[in-house]
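Exam revision sheet. Question 4 asks you to relate a sequence to its structure. Input first:
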Amino acid sequence: MYTVYCDNSILYTPGVEELKLGDPVLKLEVNKTGSFSFTIYPDHLYYDQIERMKSIVRVEKDGSMLFRGRVISEEIGFYGEKDVTCEGCLAFLLDSRIRPFSYTGTPEGLFRQILSQHNADMENEPEKQFLPGDVTGWEAEAADAGEEEVFSVDSDKCESAWDSLNNHLLNELGGYLCVRYETDGVYLDYLKDFDQMSGQEIVFGENLLEYSRETDTDGVITALVPYGAQIKEEDSSGTSRSKKRVTIEEVNGGSDMISDPEAVERYGWILGSNTWNDIEEPGKLLAAAQEYLQEHTKLNVKLELSAADLSQMDASYDDFRLGQYVFVLEPAQNTLTLGKAYSTFTDETHKQNQQVSDLVTVINTVYADYITNDSVTSIVNDLYSRIEQTSEEILSTVGENYVTSDGFQEEISTQLSQ
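Answer key, structure tokens:
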């Protein structure tokens, strides 16, 4: 069950006519601010309470926070209805400014430094602050030596905390910024990878509704010219003039390039380059380049699927959440990450066909009419019998989306790099 709050008031809860919202759409995506939009009508109890850039809107599902953000726009229609758009709380990081700085240390140290400066700028607006959360996965390759990875950043810009985190951490090292809601506050985590596995599998013939696979060659290289940090050389006046960078020539037989013979045989010569501003030793640069090339000789495989969330019919199933891994059985034996794009829609204006309408009616009956256990069992069995049809029948009967208990419709788009 979904519930929507604006500040301390309930904007939406199922079954209450005075707290009805039209066309609520929740879109969540990793490393994006996310958005939530809806229409509110003049007869709503809190029609006049929503304030742009000030009101904090929250979306919860079964008591668990899915979204928290601020109202950024509203458009009033002919009959007084307001189309409201909210952006997620990661957008608060756009409101602060990180002054020019030089840093040498660990990714965790830089993350905490940027977050600390953001919180200092937001001292008078605590709702925009984040508690420093978990920073995991950034240990050095030589962790067995007990050494932490050290890297350097020089920034001559006064930029937002959001831009600083992206430019100096996510774009350089990868990883994910994750908002975590706890009883003592809102935490911001920086994770190299997700560590949660959904307890619900996606299985062909059970809850898999649609599946497609697309191979993309964008970004594929077969050879790499790597560069490290700038070499500092001083002239007679003591001024640093050099723009040369560390290369791998002295540890790579005089060549500044490495290649993957198998990839060259398969795709031909496709050269790329990358710069590591924090690496000053040719040996370390070569190791980083080899790892980078290994990742970029692989084709990108994009998997798109729709699945029925069985947790809406049986509480023993885990539901699908942003940033989880989920195991998929047939037609491809792969583990993929849900949440590259994870969207939630209402069913009221997005019905695909009469078959979907029938399915919505079944589910809404279970959750909205408080019918008997015998009737619930009958309806759920009927729904399972529909899901267990052949793949062609599923695609033609159910369509692309799956529908949740209180009228919200959810679809999942996912991407797997292989």
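Marking note for examiners. The chain is about 20% helix and 35% strand.
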